[in-house]
Design a protein that fits this description.
Elements lengths: L3 H10 L6 E5 L12 E2 L9 E2 L3 E4 L13 E9 L13 E5 L11 E4 L3 E4 L2 E4 L9 E2 L10 E3 L7 H9 L4 E5 L3 E7 L3 E2 L10 E2 L2 H11 L3 E8 L3 H12 L4 E5 L10 H6 L4 E5 L3 E2 L5 E5 L2 E6 L3 H19 L9 E6 L3 E2 L5 E11 L2 E6 L9 H5 L2 E5 L5 E2 L4 E6 L3
Parallel strand pairs: 5-6, 13-16, 13-17, 14-15, 17-21, 19-24, 22-25
Antiparallel strand pairs: 1-12, 2-11, 3-10, 4-6, 4-7, 5-9, 8-9, 18-20, 20-21, 22-28, 23-27, 24-25, 24-26, 26-28
Helix pairs in contact: 1-6, 3-6
The structure holds adenosine monophosphate and magnesium ion.
Length: about 400
C-alpha cells in the first residue's frame, strides 16, 4: 500500500499538457492560454477624455476659483466617437464627453463639476494641471507589448482584454476526453426503476459532473458487468477516443473485482493498487493500450473523494494549469474525532468563516456510501496517517471543495 503523496506523485508524473486548439475567445473562459498575445496597437489608441467636461489649455485656468472664474469660449462639442474638427486656441474650450478625443491645442480636461454654464461660454471655477483627466494613448496597453503570456489562466478580464486587442480567437490547451465506466452487476441506468437487489448507477453522473467542473469532457460509456470479458470490451472501446479512462467499482478484493485483472493482462500495466487513505483505499492506476486508467473505488463517496485527490489534478495538468490542488486551510475543529492510525482520513465537513477564523465540523455519518453527507459538505477535513484522537478546538487541515 502506498501513501497519498506517493500515489499523487506517481499519477501526475504520467501526465503531460495536451495539444492546443484555437477557440472563440468567449469559449476560452477558465482555460489556459497556449500562446503569447501581443498588442498590435496602443490602447487607448489616442488621447481622450476621462470625464464629461471641457477640453482646455491648462494655462487658461491659472488663478481660476469660485470668486474669480475664467470665462472660455466654447468652440466645439465633442461627443465620444466623433473626431474633433477645431484647434483650441487661447481663451477657448471644447465641450467634451467621456471618451471624446482631445482636440489639438488642448492639454487638460476640466470636469463639469468645476465649471458653470454661461451661454456660449463656460465659466471655469478651478485651476487645473496639464494632463488632468486625459487618458493618454497607450496608457493601458502599448503597441507591440506582451499582454497575455502563454500559460495565463483565462478569467473574464483576460477575455475582455483579448476583445480590446481585436482578437476573436485564442489558442488554448485542449480539454481532456475522459471515458467513464461504471462496473457492477447490481447497477441499472438512471432511467430504470431498480428491481430488487439493484441500484442506480449514480457514480457515472457524479464523475461526469466532476470532470465537467474541472474543464474535462466526460464520455459516459455505461455499465460493465462483473465479467472480465465485459470489462475488457468496454475498456478497449474507451481507448479509441479517451485521454484518460476512469472506472468506478470492481477494484477491491471481491470475487468479481476484475478491473485490476484487466490492467495486468496483455500489454497493459498496473502501476499500483491501494492507497493508505479513507475513504478510497482500493484505487488502481495503470494503462490499457497506452491510455492511462484510474480504477476508482465503487462506493459513491470513495469515488468522489478519490477523484478530488487524484483525477482532478491530472485533468488540470493536461489543460496547462499551474495550480493543480484545492486550497488547503487551517480551521478550528468543533468536535472530537477518533480514528485508527495508518491511513489518511478525508472527513466530509462544513467549514464556516467567522471573524477571520475558520471553523469546521463533520457532516455526521462518514460511511463511504453516505452520498448525502457529500451533498452537505463544502470541504474535507484531512487527518494525518498517524493521528488517532483529534481534540475539539485543535487546528486541523481542511481541503476546500471549491476554489
Ligand atoms: P465494488 O467496489 O464494486 O464492490 O463497489 C462497492 C459498492 O459501491 C457497491 O456495493 C455499490 O453499492 C456501490 N457502487 C458501485 N458502483 C456504483 C455506481 N456506479 N453507482 C452507485 N453506486 C455504486
Ligand atoms: Mg462491484
Amino acid at each position: 500500500m502506498i501513501s497519498v503523496e506517493e500515489a499523487s506523485k506517481t499519477i501526475l508524473m504520467n501526465f503531460r499538457k495536451l495539444g492546443r486548439e484555437k477557440v472563440a475567445i468567449i469559449d476560452a473562459l477558465a482555460r489556459v492560454a497556449g500562446e503569447d498575445v501581443y498588442a498590435a496597437y496602443d490602447i487607448p489608441g489616442a488621447a481622450n477624455s476621462a470625464m464629461d467636461g471641457y477640453a482646455v489649455r491648462h494655462r487658461d485656468t491659472a488663478g481660476a476659483n469660485r470668486r474669480n472664474p475664467v470665462s472660455l469660449k466654447i468652440v466645439e462639442h465633442i461627443p465620444a466617437g466623433h473626431v474633433p474638427q477645431k484647434k483650441i486656441r487661447r481663451g477657448e474650450a471644447a465641450r467634451i464627453m467621456t471618451g471624446g478625443l482631445i482636440p489639438a491645442g488642448a492639454d487638460a480636461v476640466i470636469r463639469q463639476e468645476d465649471t458653470k454654464a454661461a451661454g456660449t461660454d463656460v465659466l471655469v471655477i478651478a485651476e487645473i494641471a496639464a494632463g488632468k483627466d486625459i487618458r493618454f494613448a497607450g496608457e493601458d496597453v502599448q503597441n507591440g507589448s506582451l499582454v497575455i503570456s502563454q500559460g495565463t489562466f483565462i478569467k473574464p478580464a483576460v477575455i475582455g482584454m483579448l476583445a480590446a486587442l481585436g482578437r476573436t480567437q485564442i489558442s488554448v490547451y485542449r480539454r481532456p476526453r475522459v471515458a467513464i465506466i461504471a462496473t457492477g452487476d447490481e447497477l441499472v441506468a438512471v432511467t430504470r426503476k431498480p428491481p430488487a437487489g439493484k441500484i442506480i448507477n449514480s457514480n457515472s453522473y457524479a464523475l461526469s459532473a466532476q470532470v465537467l467542473a474541472c474543464g474535462g469532457m466526460p464520455l459516459m460509456l455505461g455499465i460493465a458487468r462483473d465479467r472480465k470479458k465485459d470489462l475488457q470490451r468496454l475498456f478497449k472501446s474507451a481507448t479509441a477516443s479517451a485521454d484518460l479512462i476512469i472506472s468506478s467499482g470492481g477494484v477491491s478484493v471481491g470475487d468479481f473485482d476484475f478491473v485490476k485483472t484487466v490492467m495486468k493482462e496483455g500489454g497493459n500495466s498496473l502501476h499500483f493498487w491501494r492507497v493508505a487513505m479513507k475513504p478510497g483505499k482500493p484505487l488502481a492506476f495503470g494503462e490499457i493500450e497506452g491510455v492511462p486508467v484510474l480504477g476508482l473505488p465503487g462506493n459513491p463517496v470513495s469515488t468522489m473523494v478519490s477523484f478530488e485527490q487524484f483525477v482532478r489534478p491530472c485533468l488540470l495538468k493536461m489543460q496547462g494549469h499551474e495550480n493543480l490542488f484545492r486550497p488547503l486551510i487551517k480551521a478550528v475543529l468543533m468536535e472530537e474525532i477518533r480514528k485508527k492510525a495508518g491511513a489518511r482520513h478525508f472527513i466530509r465537513a462544513i467549514v464556516k468563516k467567522e471573524k477571520n477564523k475558520y471553523f469546521v465540523s463533520s457532516t455526521g455519518g462518514q460511511g463511504s456510501g453516505i452520498l448525502s453527507s457529500m451533498v452537505l459538505a463544502n470541504a474535507l477535513i484531512v487527518l494525518a496517517e498517524n493521528a488517532t484522537k483529534v481534540k475539539k478546538g485543535s487546528l486541523v487541515d481542511v481541503q476546500l471543495l471549491a476554489d
